[in-house]
Amino acid sequence: MDEDDLPRPGDPLDTLMKSDLDRLSVHELEARIRMLEAETERTRAKLAGAKDFRAGADALFKS
Questions:
Q1: How many CB atoms lie within 10 A of CB 31?
Q2: What is the pLDDT, as a whole number, of residue 6?
Q3: Residues 1-60: pLDDT tens digits?
Q4: Are 8 and 14 in contact (CB under 8 A)?
Q5: Rounded to 5 degrees, what are φ and ψ at 20?
Q6: What is the value of pTM for the model shown?
Q7: What is the three-class DSSP state of 10?
Q8: What SS3 class is residue 5?
Q9: Local structure of residue 26 (DSSP, 8 states)
């Protein structure tokens, strides 16, 4: 993993990654997984949109 891929200090993702999972119940862990999967899908959709936008801009300026 590249250093740029790591969360910055104070970043909510950094806090999430350092969360103590030992205190969570099975139900809470399952809910957390569902939430993280939903967030992953939301992030992938945003990334796909950004790539499409970038491709459109690149095509416009190549013309």
A1: 12
A2: 67
A3: 566 766 677 888 888 889 999 999 999 999 999 999 999 999 999 999 999 888 887 787
A4: yes
A5: -80, 110
A6: 0.69
A7: coil
A8: helix
A9: H
